[in-house]
Each structure stands twice: as structure tokens, then as C-alpha cells.
Amino acid sequence: MSINLKVIGAGMGRTGTTSLKLALELLLGGDCFHFLEYKTHPELMLPWQTFVEKLPLDTEPEAMPEISVSQCQLLMPDYLACVDEPASFYWLPLSKAFPEALIILSVRDTESWWNSMHGLYQHRDQEQEQPELISPERLKFLEFEEAIYGTDEELFTEATNKALFEQHNRRVLNYAEQHPSFKQRFLVWNVKEGWEPLCEALGLPMPDIPFPHANKAADFHGY
After folding, report:
1. Which of 90, 29, 48 has the alpha carbon at shortest distance from 65?
2. Number of separate domains in the chain
3. Could you list the residue range(s) of the whole structural domain that residue 134 is in?
4. Residue 206, pLDDT above cutoff 90
5. Sheet of 81-82: strands edge to edge?
6. Can you name the residues that pair with 7 across neighbouring β-strands?
7. Is 15 among the domain residues?
8. pTM tops 0.70
9. What is the mean pLDDT of the chain?
């Protein structure tokens, strides 16, 4: 079996991506890659770290080289979809590697997005105050985060975060407007919209169950 992505998430983290992951897994009947996958599949951290070192997250999308299906298989073996970071930074080369996949830009109001991110940063700062309580597994995960995101404190400020968030979304939206074939398989989605837009875009019936709402601001998925 080899990877064959049916859906590619272009939205940054904290935009309902955990809920989207759960929804897509139910709709597609298979696994959806998400940042949380590193918790259950820590063996995927090294391939991703090596990949990001060669092609940093902040590379402009249209300057990114093509990604082969075999490369994707190493990063996300046998997954049917991918959402959240770091995969969402590579939405353009992934969309070219899987030309039939639906591209979903999960969106959120900038202010509420920053509030959610800021809460995440605060939690991590509190962790660092008691390093002796951090498990070896958690420490490995934090080291991986530093390796792919960097440690420059400026990257974690409110102004920088908001600017990067808005720039990312603007790039995806602009590309869609300029490329009709891409736009035909492109969906802008807010988690508040739930099942309907997803099912319509995928041509699938709506499940007769409530839409999954997970990983809200008060939740933290640690080790």
C-alpha cells in the first residue's frame, strides 16, 4: 500500500484541525495525518525533521520544489489525508503530487486564533519552569518542535504570529484565485460550518452523528 492523499489541509494549526482530522477519518475510512500523530508515531519525527531542514517551513510556496509520492510515503505512510502543521506549510507541492485531492483551507478569526496560540505558548513556558517533570517522550517532542520551528523568540510574539497567519492564508487564497484548476478542488472551511461543506466537496453523504469538536483552547494534548 502507498500513500494516496484524498484531502490536503492548507490551514495552520489551531483552526479546527483536530476536529477536521476526526471528521475526515470518519468520512474517508482511514487515517488523517496531524501534528498529534507524532505522539503515537514518534518514528515519523526524524523523517520530518530531515525534510524540513532541507525545505524550511518559511519557504515561499511557489518556490518549493516538487515533492514525490515516495517522499510523501516516508513522511505520512499510508495516510488518506493530512491537516495541521507541518504538512499544511507544504500545501502547494502536495497539491501537485496528488492532483485529485481536495484542498481545504481551515480558517479562523485572527484574534481568536492568536488567543489560542498564546495559551499554547504559555503552557509550554510553564513546562520549562519545572523541566524535571517533563517525561523523556515529551522532551523528545519538544526538541523536535524546536528543530522544525526554530527558537527565535521573535517568532512567538503576537505581532509576528498574526502577520504570519494572515500571510499564509492570503497566499493560499491568492493562488486559488489565479489557478482555476486548483480552485475547482479548493474549499475554505470554518469548523463552525461542520459536516455540510466537507461532505458536499467530497461528494459524500452527511453522517447522522454530531460533528466532532476537539482540542478546544482549554485542551492540551501532552505526554
Report:
1. 90
2. 1
3. 7-202
4. yes
5. 32-33, 81-82, 7-9, 102-106, 186-189
6. 81, 102
7. yes
8. yes
9. 93
List of residues 6+ apart from 82 with CB closer than 8 A: 5, 7, 8, 9, 32, 33, 34, 76, 88, 94
**Residue 216 scores a pLDDT above 70:** no
Looking up residue 129, the CATH number of its domain turns out to be 3.40.50.300
C-alpha cell at 11: 490551514
Residue 217 lies in a domain: no
Closest CA to 52 of 117, 124, 144: 144
pLDDT digits over 15-41, tens only?
A: 999 999 999 999 999 999 999 999 999
Q: With respect to residue 40, please indicate whether it lies within any of the assigned structural domains.
A: yes
Question: Within a domain: residue 220?
Answer: no
Cβ neighbors of 160 (< 8 A, separation 6 or more) are 154
For residue 1, with 0-12 CB atoms within 10 Å meaning exposed, 13-18 middle and 19 or more buried, which class applies?
exposed
